[in-house]
Amino acid sequence: MPTIQLPNNGWRPRWYQRKAWDTWERGCKRQLLFWHRRAGKDEINLNMHAVSAHERPGTYW
Fold it and tell me: pTM, whole model, 2 decimals?
């Protein structure tokens, strides 16, 4: 069986994303991220959702 590594391919948050990622890992359910364009909002949220979906199985649309 293949090994699944999440976040994908050793993704690491950028230095300014680190605080949001660490807060989320400690169990924060809601965050407001006021970041500039191209700050990686989609990237960090996609990885957060991938990890969460793996931890809690369900049907995701």
Answer: 0.80
